[in-house]
Each structure stands twice: as C-alpha cells, then as structure tokens.
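User: Show me a protein chain along with its predicted structure.
Assistant: Here is one chain, sequence first, then structure tokens.
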Amino acid sequence: MSKTETILELRDLALKLGGKNILQNINASFESGIVHAVVGPNGAGKSTLASVLMGLPDFRYIEGDILFEGKSIKKLDTDKRAKLGITLGWQEPARFDGISIRDFLKASAKDKAEENLEKALDAVGLSPKNYLNRDCDKTLSGGERKRVEIASILVMEPKLTLLDEPDSGIDVEALDKMFEVMQMLKQKGSSVILITHSLQVLKQSERALLMCHGGIRDSGSSEKISSYFHDKCMPCDLKYAAEQGIPYDR
C-alpha cells in the first residue's frame, strides 16, 4: 500500500447515546503510512471517536459508515477489527494480574522471538532484564503500564494504531520514547492516529483534524491546526462553542 492511499475513511459518521448527539456528520479520511492527530478540547468527542473506530460494545450503533482499506467495518466487532490490523492504545492501560510482561507481549507479537520482545521494551525505555519476568499487575506504575502497552503495540505491527491521550500519566522522558515509537510504527508501515488535547502531541503529527462539539471543524497540516488550536481553542472557556451559536472561524 502506497503512502498516498487512504487506509481509513469516515462517511457521515454519527453516534447518539442516551438521546444525545455525541458525534455528528463526521467525514474524514486518513492516509496510510503517516501520523495523524485528532485534536480538540475535553468533551469534544475525541475518545468517543476512537471507541467507535475500534468497535467497542457501547459504541457500535452508529449512523454512516467506516471504511478500512476500502471495505466497510461498521458491522464488525472489536476482535474482527483487531484481526484486520486495527489496535487501540488506551488512555488508562488495563492491568492483567497473573501474566508476565513476556507472555503479555508474546500474546500480541507478530514475531514472538525473545529478541523482538527485548527490542520493544528497550524502545520504550524499560530494561528487558528487569521487566520481562515481572507481572502486569498493580506493582507497575501507571507510566510503566503505559510503556508496556506501547511495547505490545510495537511487536503487534498493526496496520492502524489509535493512541488515546498517549501522554497521559507519563513523564517527559517516557513521552520522548513514545514519540520515537510513533516514528518506528510509521517506518514499519503502520498508520498512527493520535487522540489528544496536547499541543506537544499534536505537533508530532503530519496531518490533523480539529474536533469540537462532536464534529470535525477543520483539517489540514499539523502546523495549520496547531496554530488555530493554540490561538483559539486553548484560551476558549466555552465547553461547546457550537451550542452557543459561535461559528468556527477558519
């Protein structure tokens, strides 16, 4: 697949939960082999969009369509989307008591060789000697669990990686490692979509979408969206500008 092809396309995507419109009229396309960002303030619908794309149980009853590599995945459950090569890195990684980090990585690895697991841990700044035999349990800090999860994505070699708030709960050093892993995923041919309200994370992308009030307000280069987000969105004290009848100023 060439870098100019579309790996993911959203057509008139909408979601209603509890009688409320959460996502509405979303039309967007994501090119293969590059890093994208979906940015917006808290409550804009970004994490909900990630859940919809992954097909999580409470987020599957949508209007419109989702095309992955040109085929609709609207009716596919989470496991089937994962088998197609889509994965989601959670804002708050889960704990898996009773399983070692080695076995956790092996479970998702495309290449289960020990050397591959070690390289992935090195890439996220964790010593294989100190971590491979540790359990994925409460003895790991939130930042450590985040790094282990990213290592698992790296060995998985997915076609499309969704990272929800990748900077959540980690320090500056870990964030730098995270940015390096994003580039490694890209080099392996994976497309990356960053879900974020962080200007620092946004600047790691090449293309970006700006969300507000459950809809896409603009798209373009990361430089263009970063400028608007910094100057207009970050100072804004309105949770939902669209509810107030304030038009989006391009």
